[in-house]
Amino acid sequence: MLTAMKKAAKCHPSQALQKHADLIPMLSLLAKVSVGSEIFISESLAETIAQYRALFLKLISSPIYHVRKLAAKAYERFMPFSSTYKSIVTVVDELCMHNRNCDGIHSSCLGFKENYLNGILLTLKYLLEKLKHDSENMSELKSKIPEIITVLKESVANCMIWDSCTYLNRVLCLELIEDKFNVVDTAYISSDETFKRILHVHKTLVNENLNNSFKPGLLLWAAKVVDVVVRKCYPQDLVSTWYNSYTLCSDYPDVVTSAFTSLKLRLLHDNKIDSAIKASLFIALLRVCLEITEECPTLFPLFDVMLVLMEGLKVNVVITFRELKKISVWFIGDRKNKSEYSKAALPVVTGLLSQYFAHGQCIELSTQILDFVLELSLCIKDRTDVMKYEEDFRLSAATAMHLLAPSLKAMLAEKSKEFSAEEVLKSTLEILLDVQLTLLQDEDNDVRKEAAKFVHAYTAEVNRTTMSMTVNPYASLRNLMKPDVLLTMLTVPQAMEFLWKKMHYTHDLESIKVKLSHGSHENVSITSPFDLGTNNIYNEETKIIDILGKSLLEIIKVANREERNELRKLIKYKCVEFKDDVRTVLSLLKRKESCKLIENYS
């Protein structure tokens, strides 16, 4: 390998493409090798390693990017930990030499110089990543950081005066300056400087677009500049910086997405951003969202950041019912319900609905509002179907449910006296309870955990010290089915009917009877409606039936004679004889064998 690499490194430039391409398999292997500690390396082996490193430094100027990248990585892998800092100093010196030699550069040498700069920057990047694991040398590097940053900025300046494909190198320089040297606190960028950088990106993109000459890496560079200014601007300038990035680069989805991603990370990790700034930012995001009238790549990251602000940061804003309706168009309808936009839009709208109720804009429950909530509930219910939707859509439904909990409490506090509105509210509550029970039994663990948050959000009496229990799906199901919680949503007759139907929800006795009459020997035992297969955490359905049954028995105790008679009719319809004795009722509720039910049915 050493001989082959020597020949390739010395070959004529006209043969470089072919010769260097042949090295890729060898370099791929060498880039995975680690030389270990110097004290375990013999003198002869150390000489061989030094020869390899020298060849790697020659190959970092290869005309093939993949060769440059592998050579830079192999150079880092062949460098012992104790020599990493010295290697960084050596590479920075090479960069200084490169910068000095760029003055008056001839166009015939330009490609080689660019490739060499790219190789140097890649090598420096990998060495810095390695040095992060060496705290002793890392402290030594801190004193040299200002000098290295100055050299890198000179490289950026040289890139900008070259009339060629230098944007990939600009991206690497920015990444090294802004990301790899973040071991020390970097000063905030002033508002004037942030606007200047964003405007420069805008003008560059416009000019390149007019000339129809988009160079490789141009959009990567633009996205990186926007990423830096959003992450490094002063907290009080965050709203204007993001908005300027969005408006000036709105024609370039990759750049806009970078702005949203950086904004999301900043919101999650910067504790210096106060609630007033977050509220202003959310209002700006909401206004942008309302201005979008057709599907575009901006929608998904936009909804994502809005959800972060509502869910994790608890920002409060005022929203009108008209605005709610306008945003809901992104997930209402069969076609839109399965779009990527609907996945992010659904929980955002449920969170906004809770904001709508929280600010007292809903004096009473109008039919219009209840119809909207019912439609919203049906959309959430549709998402819980494991046969139609993947985990990410069902997770969206679970998030929507726990964001909807405050709305649910507000609706119950403002119950309408109109019969038609009362019926709509009843249907909505039963749908949401059904959705919650289904999500708590989802085959995906993340979906179950997200669904468990609903109970914590709804039951205000839960103590903070028991939060770990409320995010447990099984414990949440028990808490939700407690009579005192269930009866805050449903009346006694509604609760009894709901619990009884839930225990037989997915089973058609007639179809079971047909199976038996045809001599089928498969297991046709009546199971819980929550048995979703081997991935279900509730592998004993009797435990679920026991929870529902005990809740039903407790509610029966507080029911009056008329309400009990209604339950008797319901149970008689389901072919099970009702007994007043509560222990017998519980026994019947746990019964699973289909044959016994079929006998009663016939």
TrEMBL record:
Any single biological process term in GO: tRNA methylation
UniProt domain tRNA (32-2'-O)-methyltransferase regulator THADA-like C-terminal TPR repeats region: residue ranges: 6-126
GO CC annotations, alphabetized: cytosol
Top-level lineage group: Eukaryota
SUPFAM superfamilies named in the record: ARM repeat
Cited InterPro entries: ARM-type_fold, THADA-like_TPR_C, tRNA_methyltransferase_THADA
Protein name, per record: tRNA (32-2'-O)-methyltransferase regulator THADA-like C-terminal TPR repeats region domain-containing protein
Organism whose genome encodes this protein: Cryptotermes secundus
